[in-house]
Specification:
Layout lengths: L9 H20 L5 H37 L3 H14 L3 H7 L12 H12 L10 H9 L15 E10 L2 E11 L4 E7 L9 H12 L4 E8 L8 H4 L2 E5 H13 L9 H16 L5 H11 L1 H9 L4 H14 L4 E7 L2 E6 H4 L18 E8 L2 E8 L7 H12 L17 E5 L12 H4 L1 H34 L2
Parallel strand pairs: 3-4, 4-5
Antiparallel strand pairs: 1-2, 2-3, 6-7, 7-8, 8-9, 9-10
Length: 477
């Protein structure tokens, strides 16, 4: 019997399994046959069952080999270190981007941002106080061999987006460095996250030749990897330069305190170095490293992902079981990201049945709900929207909550007509809980301890205030 060929994809595996179904059905049908027929039938289907067993064994062996290969990959440790660095290191540039200035996107994701930083550093008269130190170091890295005594570069002019027209097409060179005394120029086309398009490098080169016919020209194609231009004719004209050279030059200035700089400049440059290392340089970029590792170990990583815990579903089940153990608590409407409950104490009061808008089948005014932001659970006390029957009670509850800031954390300073949370807890878990502790019981114990503390302390105090409001409403009828 020939060894089976290993199935290359899920569709082929499924086809093999489906092909075994008739054999399994015949096993079932033989139970009603005579012993002779059973023996003959089982003898006939044995090769098919053996084939299926071999296929499944091969698949398991392949998965084990893939997982072992992934576990032995040294890049996993680098990914762990970079991820820890990204969590623990403060990057002011990332922070400023998160604040929503400008586009609200990460600053490092903008090619324009990097060009502006480079122009600032390259300008000998820039506010950094470095003089032409960065300029000369960069030009040496770029192969501008005519760099002479530093004073010869003091009059250098640095322009961002040098505009020109050539062959009836307008264009802008990202950075242009012009030294009129030395009759040298260096043009930099900065491509951080985009590729060159069309014949732009050819047009830029011709525009520079036309505008600076007597100058010695150096053309630099700056990219994260030091990629060469796509067009063959420009590969001989433009020098490829990797961002690792920019990184090294900036790092040199940060580390060398003999290089004069204005106060605060080294701190800023240190953050810029961090940004380059994390997000731009492919050999140290977490996203690039993770991508490369995934592509090499795709099947093993996909297998791991397919078997990752469903954090929300499992935590919701733990919370549901804890709620069910409380004698006077009633589970209420539940969905994928919420598990809700209320107490029997509230049901005794007609005022809580005021068509709160939870669902067509519910008219409860008030509910506790565990909600999940991402995978992190928290507890909130939700008050449903205003209508003609609940306005007075909503105001009474909201004012009572405001009088107890040590107990309640409402999400509004004034009562809106729509949904409002009278209380919003902090996250019950944190990212460190989504590890091995998830399966060894540590995370569940933490969740249940929080729940026990809440039921023993906060809940009785909150419930007393809520019930007190309900009793006053009932007494006033």
């Amino acid at each position: 019997m020939n060894m089976p060929v290993h199935p290359e994809n899920e569709a082929e595996q499924m086809q093999l399994l489906v092909s075994a179904i008739p054999a399994l059905e015949r096993v079932t049908s033989t139970l009603a046959d005579s012993d002779a027929v059973k023996t003959a039938t089982l003898h006939n289907i044995t090769p098919q069952l053996a084939h299926l067993a071999n296929v499944l064994a091969e698949e398991q062996e392949k998965q084990e080999k893939g997982l072992n290969k992934l576990a032995a990959d040294e890049r996993l440790e680098r990914i762990r270190k970079l991820a820890a660095e990204q969590r623990n290191e403060f990057d002011a540039l990332d922070f400023v981007g998160e604040l929503g200035f400008g586009s609200g996107r990460a600053l490092w994701g903008s090619e324009e941002f990097h060009s502006k930083v480079l122009v600032w550093l390259l300008d000998p008269r820039g506010s950094h106080g470095l003089g032409d130190r960065f300029l000369t170091l960069f030009l040496l890295q770029a192969g501008v061999l005519a760099v002479g005594h530093p004073q010869e570069w003091a009059a250098t002019e640095v322009t961002r987006e040098w505009a020109h027209d050539v062959e009836r097409q307008s264009g802008r060179v990202d950075i242009l460095i012009v030294n009129p005394i030395q009759q040298i120029l260096c043009a930099i086309e900065n491509k951080v996250f985009a590729d060159e398009h069309g014949d732009q490098l050819t047009r830029y080169r011709k525009a520079l030749e036309s505008s600076f016919p007597t100058f010695t020209k150096y053309l630099v194609f700056l990219t994260p990897r030091g990629t060469s231009p796509a067009r063959e004719e420009e590969k001989q004209q433009w020098t490829p330069l990797a961002y690792s050279k920019v990184f090294g030059t900036v790092q040199q200035i940060v580390n060398n305190h003999e290089i004069p700089a204005r106060m605060g400049v080294r701190g800023f440059l240190n953050h810029y170095v961090t940004t380059l290392r994390r997000n731009v340089m492919p050999e140290t970029s977490l996203s690039q490293l993770a991508r490369k590792t995934y592509l090499e170990h795709r099947e093993a990583i996909d297998l791991i992902i397919a078997n990752r815990p469903n954090w929300v579903s499992e935590a919701r089940q733990w919370l549901r079981e804890a709620i069910e153990q409380q004698p006077k608590w009633l589970l209420d409407k539940e969905d994928r990201r919420h598990i809700r409950f209320r107490t029997e104490d509230w049901n005794r009061h007609d005022a809580t049945q005021t068509e709160g808008g939870w669902s067509p089948t519910s008219n409860t005014l008030l509910r506790f709900e565990f909600t999940f932001s991402g995978d992190l659970p928290s507890l909130q006390l939700a008050l449903s929207p205003k209508n003609e029957t609940n306005e007075f009670l909503r105001h009474k509850l909201f004012e009572a909550v405001r009088q107890k800031p040590q107990l309640f954390k409402p999400n509004a300073n004034s009562l809106p007509d729509g949904w409002v949370h009278l209380h919003q807890s902090d996250s019950i878990l944190d990212e460190s809980d989504f590890g091995i502790g998830w399966d060894d019981g540590t995370t569940r114990v933490k969740l249940e301890k929080w729940f026990a503390d809440f039921t023993a302390h906060e809940f009785p105090a909150m419930n007393e205030i809520i019930v007190g409001c309900l009793q006053e409403i009932d007494a006033g009828k």
